[in-house]
Amino acid sequence: GAVVSQHPSWVICKSGTSVKIECRSLDFQATTMFWYRQFPKQSLMLMATSNEGSKATYEQGVEKDKFLINHASLTLSTLTVTSAHPEDSSFYICSARSLGGSSYNEQFFGPGTRLTVL
Amino acid sequence: GDSVTQMEGPVTLSEEAFLTINCTYTATGYPSLFWYVQYPGEGLQLLLKATKADDKGSNKGFEATYRKETTSFHLEKGSVQVSDSAVYFCALREGGSNYKLTFGKGTLLTVNP
Lengths: 118, 113
What we know:
The structure holds 2 protein chains of 2 kinds. Chain A is mainly β. In chain A, 0% of the residues lie in helices and 52% in strands. In chain A, 34% of the residues are buried. Chain B has strands spanning 3-6, 11-14, 19-21, 23-26, 32-38, 44-50, 56-59, 62-65, 75-77, 86-93, 101-103, 107-112. In chain B, strands 2, 5, 6, 10, 11 and 12 form a 6-stranded mixed β-sheet that branches. Chain B has a 4-stranded antiparallel β-sheet with strand order 3-9-8-7, with no helix packed on it. In chain B, strands 1-4 form a two-stranded antiparallel sheet.
C-alpha cells in the first residue's frame, strides 16, 4: 500500500512551452502533497506544499507564477512549469502525506519526473 | 534554519562489509530523524526513523540511534549485500504541525560481490 505515482516519468520540451506533471496517491487519500526539486548530486529541495482545496504554500525563492500547483482532489496534485527554460531542467519529485494508521504523517514519494528543456 | 549534513559519497564496499554513513543535523527544536533509501529508478522509501533522543530505528538490518548530545543519526549495517546498493538520504522533520522534511545531499552506496 501507500503508492504514489508520477506522470510522465520523463519529458523533453522546447524552451517557452509549459509542462504539466501529475502526482497521484493510488491507494490512499492525501490532503497534503509536497513538490521537491533535485539537482544532480544534490539534496531534495522543497518547492511547495500542496493542500487539497486551497492554495499551495511556496518556499522562499520559488516563483509561484512559474511553478503552478493545483491540488483539486484528495488523490491528485499537479505541477505546471510555465514558459520553461533550460535552467528549469531538473528532477521533480512529489510526495503525499498519509493520515492513516501506522503510517500516520509519513510521506510517501513518487518515482520522480525528469524534465529536460531544450 | 534546519540543516542536515551527511558524509559525501560515493561509498564502495564489498559484500558483507560493515557500513557506516554519518549524518549530523542542526535544528532549533526537537526534530524527528529519518533515513530514506532510493533504489535505481524508484522513489524514496522510508528506511527507518527515530522520534526522540536515544531512540534506535532499525529495519532490514540497518540501524541508527538518535544522539541529541552529538546531534547525530549515523546509519549502520553490519553486513551489506549487493541489493543494498542505492542512494541513502538522512532527513529531519521539526516537531509540531510542521510536516516539512529537510534532507541531506544523499550518499551513493555501491556494494560489489
